[in-house]
Design a protein that fits this description.
It is built from 13 helices and 13 strands. The chain has two domains: about 150 residues, ATPase, nucleotide binding domain (Nucleotidyltransferase, domain 5), CATH 3.30.420.40; about 180 residues, ATPase, nucleotide binding domain (Nucleotidyltransferase, domain 5). The protein is globular and about 55 Å long. Helices cover about 35% and strands about 20% of the residues. The chain is of the alpha/beta class. The strands form three sheets. It has a six-stranded mixed sheet. The chain has a five-stranded mixed sheet with strand order 10-9-8-11-12, with helices on both faces. The N terminus is likely disordered. Adenosine-5'-diphosphate binds next to loops.
């Protein structure tokens, strides 16, 4: 029987980002000139599991064992989602070329030559019977790169599939990162906090996972004084390549700012303002661009998107315009990176992470 063309070159991408909000899984077909999302499935983590992952970002007793047990939990959730996805699409595991798996980052310390994501790629490969690629960041770091962001090359590929030569992507996850594509040149780097402070704050004050549509932030007023002090951090002044995460921007970092002196909703509004300004500032520097594509969960924060659109002189669009929902860009990106890995394609991240050479990224586990 002939396989239908959209059932060829099938890959699965799994992403669980720094927000630790849940797992996004996509099934897609990938070739040199086209990516097609066939199906997707997402699962939110319980607040308890989210807290357990976030706590692992700081040193604690028995953390080695905890990270392995939690990694297994995440692998087991992923396995169930993959089984469902295959069943819903009447697919056999043998029709999937590979899984690109990115578990939650619990440490990202390029200066000490490591980045640590949890998950269990051996369980994934063994149980799903699908080749599994993981650990995408450490070869880049070994080449003196930041190990992040890795998604810009996928953004570039995405524009290529649509025959678009220039464009900017801003991914608003726990942290925000930007990709600037101008014909064959590409730059990309982390901007700093995206949703992470808004999530931490609403979690602390209201025990909620996130500020839906930014409505709590909207009820507050920006504190210019707090904003100025937040923006004074050296990371925001540093030139790229640069990457960051919860190792640096976390509750300890926030505790320096006496947040209890402010109305809680004003703090939330100021955090939204910080995320907005970090993005707008970069966009202001760019010339000759028509479109900015927003992806990541922040694209669903309607208040944040309204503020960005109102204050930006260039069109702000969701990546939906390119045919991929904003929350699926990262999992699709890791499906694509998995595809590059099993094809032994060396990727050039020099202008993004600062790596000194091209590398095949990821470690492949065979079932
Ligand atoms: N409707 C929404 N309103 C406000 N924020 C949202 C909404 N949907 C998602 N988010 C934010 O997006 C985050 C998840 O984004 P995601 O791209 O998955 O980040 P990460 O890659 O860090 O996991 C959530 O933690 C939340 O802060
Ligand atoms: Mg997420």
């Amino acid at each position: 029987m002939q396989i239908k063309s959209d059932k060829k070159n099938l890959f699965i991408g799994i992403m669980s980002g720094t927000s630790s909000d849940g797992l996004d899984v996509v099934l897609c077909s990938i070739d040199d000139n086209q990516i097609k999302i066939i199906d997707s499935i997402s699962q939110s983590y319980s607040r308890k599991l989210q807290m357990e992952i976030i706590e692992l970002n700081s040193p604690s007793i028995d953390e080695l064992n905890k990270s392995k047990i939690l990694g297994n939990k995440i692998a087991n959730i992923s396995i169930k989602l993959i089984e469902k996805l295959l069943l819903n699409n009447h697919l056999d595991p043998s029709s999937i070329k590979a899984i690109g798996f990115h578990g939650p980052t619990i440490r990202h310390v390029p200066k000490d030559f490591y980045s640590l994501q949890i998950g269990n790629e051996f369980l994934l490969a063994s149980r799903t019977k699908i080749k599994t690629v993981s650990n995408f960041r450490n070869m880049d770091i070994a080449s003196n790169g930041e190990g992040a962001p890795l998604i810009p090359l996928f953004h570039k590929y995405l524009l290529h599939t649509k025959n678009i030569k220039k464009g900017v992507f801003v991914n608003i996850g726990g942290f925000s990162n930007i990709s600037i594509i101008n014909n064959s040149s590409i730059r990309g780097y982390d901007l700093g906090p995206g949703n992470v402070f808004m999530d931490i704050w609403i979690n602390k004050i209201k025990k909620r996972k996130y500020d839906k549509n930014g409505s709590w932030a909207k009820s507050g007023t920006v504190s210019d004084d707090l904003l100025r002090r937040l923006l004074n951090d050296s990371f925001f002044k540093k030139k790229p390549p640069k990457s960051t995460g919860r190792d640096y921007f976390n509750l300890d970092w926030l505790n320096k700012f006496n947040l209890n002196d402010f109305k809680p909703e004003d703090v939330q509004r100021t955090f939204l303002e910080l995320s907005t300004i970090l993005i707008l500032r970069e966009i202001e520097k760019l010339k000759g661009l028509k479109d900015i594509f927003i992806c990541g969960g922040g694209a669903n924060n309607t208040y944040l998107m309204d503020e960005l659109s109102k204050r930006c002189r260039i069109n702000i669009r969701s990546t939906e315009y390119l045919g991929i929902k904003p929350e699926l860009i990262e999992p699709a990106g890791f499906a694509w990176l998995g595809c590059q890995s099993i094809n032994n394609n060396k990727l050039n991240y020099k202008a993004i992470t600062g790596a000194i050479k091209d590398n095949v990224l990821g470690v492949v586990v065979h079932p």
